[in-house]
Amino acid sequence: MLIRFLITVCCLLTVGVQNAHSWPVDNRTPAFQFDQAVVTELSPLSKVNKPWRLCALYPHMKDSYWLSVNYGMVEQARQLGVELQVAEAGGYHKLERQWQQIQDCLSWQADAILLGTVSFAEFNHRLRAENNSTPLFGLVNNLSSENLSGRVGVPWYQMGYQTGLFLAERHPSGSPEVSIAWFPGPKQRGGTPESEQGLRDALVDSSVNIIVTANGDNDRNVQRNLLQQVLDQHSELDYVVGSAVMAEVAINELRKRNLRKPPEVISHYLSHGVYRGLKRGKVLMANSDQMVLQGRLAVDQSVRFLEGLEFLPDIGPRIIRLTLDNTQQHQSDWSLSPAGFTPTYRVKPE
Questions:
Q1: Distance (Å, whole) CA 231 – CA 350
Q2: What family classification does the UniProt entry report for this protein (predicted)?
Q3: Same domain, yes or no: 227 and 206
Q4: Is the distance from CB of 3 to CB of 33 less than 8 angstroms?
Q5: Does 7 reside within a domain?
Q6: Sign, Cα dihedral of 349, 338, 183, 285
Q7: What percentage of the chain exceeds 70 in pLDDT?
Q8: Are residue 211 and residue 338 in the same domain, yes or no?
Q9: What is the reported pTM?
Q10: 223: closest CA among 275, 262, 179, 267?
Q11: Which of 6, 91, 138, 286 is the S-S candidate for 143 at Cβ 3.0 to 4.6 Å?
């Protein structure tokens, strides 16, 4: 089912002292369903009543996507004067490691846990058994709403759908057929199932054929090996489409192969390498779900909840389609961490 968006500028949430700027977000109603969203201008908090302890867990930081989320969270935590502790699982297959990290957050006596989950629903029964009162917030990756106090993220269905729509607009039904290889990321983990469904739905009424799907962890070596295997077996591809890690390694791999007609490269999400590729014309299209802004929103949302203030329980930035034509005008500081930023695992209040 296509996700419907009710595009209406609604209100300015201004609880607390306002900053001079606001953040446009999709405010989803009803919460945790991704069915409808109202565009809302959110004015971020600029002060807190106590230095809350936030524990944030990521699936990995193998690409700069999660690095940019990390930057947004770190900056917002510093601005508000709250404590932030961060851990990464090391990959989408590290379910038990992330569960142990949840336990570590509880032992640390976190006031809230912000979970970038490795699995949509695997932790549900364990969290019920814990019977713990620590608020749990979904971060970026879709998480079962069963135990959630709030969520920040975008529908990964739409990340895939917008990618497919771009291709369908270039190759509508009745036009000459084209072929793509699809590299969605780890099978049944993160946003892979939703993005794959979105892509396929968008391509139904088009002349685009997915001739191979190659699943694998978002690791450079894994994606490079998958890409090499696909290119060896399918020499006449028109597009390689998939994760930012795949797109980054594809730029170099295609240059080395010096093909007569190399396939175009499309990424369904953004990274620093993909952004450079867009500006150089090496990547045809990518989506930005504004990762830095997601990190800032996640800290702001959880602190509002802890302070007992009005808050929006289910929000995310708008998804932006980027091509060579509009990359120069894109406000990249809401999407990408600055050059030189390295993973930061602890922020202490000053």
A1: 52
A2: Belongs to the bacterial solute-binding protein 2 family.
A3: yes
A4: no
A5: no
A6: positive
A7: 94
A8: no
A9: 0.90
A10: 267
A11: 138
